[in-house]
Amino acid sequence: HTHEQGRRILKPMELSGYESADDDTYLPVRDFLIKFTHEVRPLQ
Questions:
Q1: Alpha-carbon separation of residue 14 from 1, 2, 10, 21, 35 (angstroms)
Q2: Residue 2's closest CA among 24, 17, 15?
Q3: Which of the residues in the chain have pLDDT under 70?
Q4: By C-alpha distance, which of 26, 24, 6 is closest to 15?
Q5: N or C: which end of the chain has fewer CB within 10 A?
């Protein structure tokens, strides 16, 4: 999102930018998916 090529890639997705992520960033997602799988239904 800081270079013209990146902006062209993001434009069709209607995104103005993105944030870097690491394992800690995804911990809430992982925890949600584990809980969902156990309490609602398995993921396909």
A1: 12, 15, 6, 19, 30
A2: 17
A3: 1
A4: 6
A5: C
Residue 35 one-letter amino acid = K
| pLDDT at 3 (0 to 100) | 86
Closest CA to 18 of 3, 31, 28: 3
List the domain boundaries for the chain: 19-44
Q: How far apart are CA 37 and CA 25, in angstroms?
A: 20
pLDDT recorded at residue 1? 60
Task: Give the whole-angstrom CA distance, residue 36 versus residue 40.
Answer: 5
